[in-house]
Write a structure and sequence with these properties.
This protein is α/β, with parallel strands linked by helices. The chain contains 10 helices and 10 strands. Bound molecules: NADP nicotinamide-adenine-dinucleotide phosphate. NADP nicotinamide-adenine-dinucleotide phosphate binds next to strand 10 and helix 9.
Amino acid sequence: MRTRRIPGTDEALPVVGLGAPLPFVELPPEGRDLPKALIQTMVDMGGRLIDTPAFFRPDVPVIGELLTEMGLQQELFLTGKITVNGKEEGIAHLEKTVANLNKRPMDLLMVHNMREMDLHWPTLKEWQAAGRVRYIGVSLARTTDYSQLEGFMKAERPDFIMVRYSIHHPHSGERILPLAEDSGIAVIGVEAFKTNDDGGFFGLVAGKQLPQWAAEFDCESWAQFSLKYMLSNPALTCVVTETSKVKHVVDNMRAGYGRLPDMATRQRMREHVLSL
Ligand SMILES: NC(=O)c1ccc[n+]([C@@H]2O[C@H](COP(=O)([O-])OP(=O)(O)OC[C@H]3O[C@@H](n4cnc5c(N)ncnc54)[C@H](OP(=O)(O)O)[C@@H]3O)[C@@H](O)[C@H]2O)c1
């Protein structure tokens, strides 16, 4: 799979990773085979990053147990996020995340949706200084107001940001992604398949043929159409997608192979999708 370097380091990440589908949080009735197959398929296809579940629920997700059984902790690049309010609660949350994932140091810890930054960002800086995490950053999705993130990036230069960026939501591409590129900040793109419509991207393209010219950038599916649009922005280090189907992991990982669209083609892709 294509890789991109984390700015300022010699470490490269494969450009497509996995998000946190429900089977990583709650075992499906069929048991562990499905979530393990999702992870193994990503690994077999050259993926390495898992954006682990956000621990919204009081119960600890099963992802850590699965990774331990599969012996993959060291091989994978694992992220975690503070998804709770309160300084002490945030620290307890990180401890729980690390204990569950059993990865020391953690690869990347973020403040989810930039909540209570005055409390949580100093915690992440302390953890990084103490060697408990290699990279730190913030996530911000489901917004079109990037002013807080922009100010934060300029003031603190985090190692990573995680932002929404897609054909339907290219707003972060206006100022945030160029700023990340100029400042040496790695970017994880999310929400590849969200639109403003409840049916989402796949509702929009259902029953529609891929344009023939998609073959010019080795695109075989609508999922890859969206992911290759994202990845053709060089500011993105990688993208993560969420799926509970092995065939969709295969589909999405394949977006990390082959050619990417050029600038003119990107424009054509956006016009095409918006015309559907
Ligand atoms: N603020 C934050 O920190 C934040 C916010 C949003 C997302 N994220 C991260 O990003 C990850 C991805 O979330 P997202 O919102 O960006 O979701 P997404 O990947 O854009 O969309 C997931 C949806 O697309 C479907 N799908 C995935 N691949 C497909 C394929 N090849 N063909 C057809 N359908 C496909 C999935 O259904 P199936 O299960 O049926 O495949 C699921 O319904 C999350 O798990 C999380 O790790 C973080």
